[in-house]
Design goal:
Layout: H1 4-10, H2 22-27, E1 33-37, E2 40-43, E3 48-51, H3 54-57, H4 66-78, H5 91-103, E4 109-115, H6 118-135, E5 143-147, H7 156-161, E6 178-181, H8 196-214, E7 219-224, H9 240-251, E8 254-258, H10 272-275, E9 282-285, E10 297-302, H11 303-310, H12 328-344, H13 346-367, E11 371-375, E12 382-389, E13 394-395, H14 398-410, E14 413-414, E15 416-418, E16 421-424, H15 432-448
Parallel strand pairs: 3-14, 5-6, 5-7, 7-8, 8-9
Antiparallel strand pairs: 1-2, 2-3, 4-10, 9-10, 11-12, 12-13, 12-16, 15-16
Helix pairs in contact: 4-12, 5-12, 8-9, 13-15, 14-15
Length: 449
């Protein structure tokens, strides 16, 4: 590896980073992370912090799980790659598909299509949803419903159902036939409704109205996150996902649960859908499926969907896939990661430490007027919305947000900015003392502002 002077001199000079302005990053160099252990990361200057972002919602097992690392290393020597196209498979892909099916059995998922990440998984579910209806002689079902503030990746399909214009405007026109319902966001919503249960009913009524307007026979699927992650950790009322499921069933619309963030224990249960007591028709997964150690995602289907494909004629062929679908090294990582996830019972720690982090943020809200809203309390997903005027709910300016981010990092916690939200999704193996370090770091960050 090149020396530190080389790394500093070339930082962001040749590499364009995701979700950032390339010109700004060239003049304001990104933090160079050189090492990680447990729930902590270390930068090029030797500064060690708690990773309250968990990589990017994904390093559920922390950075030191040797079982997963060894499985990857062994597979690199046994079979580093082979395609799953053209009638071939490999042992680790077969094992991983079984492990995934077992993990999601309670959610009703029985088939798995491996991808390279969450955006791929969303794209796969959207495409298969349209094909499902074609196979059932309803080719007019091509439209999709989703929620504002939702995030479903960066491909054209995912961006089209995304509910945040930041990920849409520069790339429009996007895929036609995608329509957005209000978010179950009590702090800000078009109904002015602060009661989450009443808000859920209002959105259900809006969904019924949109279906009537579009025509139920034109809608392929409704996609939602059980808890909206990148949109600000927006937690719906416990009734919300069930209401959406009932409406979908009544109108013959598939329900797709985007579990890329909420799956594998982050919500305090093994899936966000299970957390709310709902079985969707399809699931998009990634991130925690390998704890970020290898890029893998998966699209999952229940029997209702699977049997339509498997009992169809030639049109049931899935002419969709990725070079790295069912990658043998990635599959080895999946099997090892799921085994470790269950062995460590990460959902239980996520629930306990998530409650600690949420309560810590509520205490800071009492201390600092710039905290307008605190969201979380369901596993290790916490969002803090900052305002310059609490009564008017005026969003905090980005200059102040960046000052808070820097001061928090210097005080020992790496957090993520999502516009005027601070988002936290630390490793699910994080300790009580480490969560307190995040709270203390944000205390220092808010004080600095």
């Amino acid at each position: 590896m090149k020396d530190d002077n080389f790394l500093r001199a070339n930082n962001a000079q040749h590499l364009w980073h995701p979700m950032g302005h390339p010109g700004d990053l060239r003049s304001h160099a990104p933090t160079i992370i050189t090492g990680a252990e447990g729930s902590s990361i270390t930068d090029i200057d030797g500064h060690r912090t708690i990773d309250a972002v968990g990589g990017l919602w994904c390093v559920n097992l922390g950075y030191s799980n040797d079982t997963v690392k060894e499985a990857i290393a062994k597979q690199l020597y046994d079979l580093p790659y082979y395609s799953a196209f053209g009638g071939t498979s490999n042992p680790t892909a077969i094992e991983a598909s079984y492990a995934v099916r077992e993990f999601f059995a309670e959610d009703g998922m029985t088939r798995v299509f491996f991808t390279s990440g969450g955006s791929d998984s969303v794209e796969t579910c959207l495409r298969l949803a349209r094909q499902y209806h074609r196979l059932r002689a309803e080719p007019g079902r091509t439209k999709f419903l989703s929620l504002k503030k939702g995030y479903h990746g960066t491909h054209f399909g995912g961006a089209s159902v995304n509910g945040n214009n930041r990920f849409r405007i520069n790339y429009e026109p996007l895929m036609p036939g995608c329509f957005h319902l209000p978010s179950p966001y009590p702090y800000r919503n078009p109904f002015g409704e602060a009661d989450p249960a009443v808000l859920a009913q209002n959105i259900a009524a809006a969904m019924e109205d949109e279906i009537a307007f579009q025509g139920a026979g034109s809608i392929a699927a409704f996609i939602m996150e059980p808890i909206q992650g990148a949109g600000g950790v927006i937690v719906p009322d416990a009734s919300f996902m069930r209401l959406m499921r009932e409406i979908c069933d009544r109108h013959g619309i598939l329900m797709i649960a985007d579990e890329v963030i909420t799956g594998f224990g982050r919500s305090g249960d093994w899936t966000g859908s299970r957390h709310w007591g709902v079985q969707p028709d399809m699931m998009c997964t990634a991130k925690g499926i390998t704890s970020g150690y290898f890029p893998v995602g998966a699209a999952l289907m229940n029997d209702k969907v699977a049997e339509v494909f498997e009992n169809a004629g030639e049109d049931g062929g899935i002419y969709h896939g990725y070079t790295y679908s069912a990658h043998p090294v990635g599959a080895a990582a999946v099997t090892a990661c799921l085994s470790e996830t269950l062995r460590l019972d990460t959902k239980t720690n996520a629930a306990a430490r998530g409650a600690q982090l949420y309560e810590g943020m509520l205490a800071l809200q009492e201390k600092y007027d710039i905290i307008g809203d605190v969201r979380g309390g369901h596993g290790l997903m916490t969002g803090v919305e900052l305002v310059s005027d609490r009564a008017a709910k005026t969003p905090m300016d980005m200059a102040t947000m960046k000052r808070i981010h820097t001061a928090t990092y210097e005080a020992g916690a790496m957090v993520r900015l999502g516009m005027h939200n601070i988002l936290m999704s630390p490793p699910l193996v994080i300790t009580e003392a480490e969560v307190q370090q995040i709270i203390d770091g944000l205390d220092a960050g808010f004080a600095a502002a």
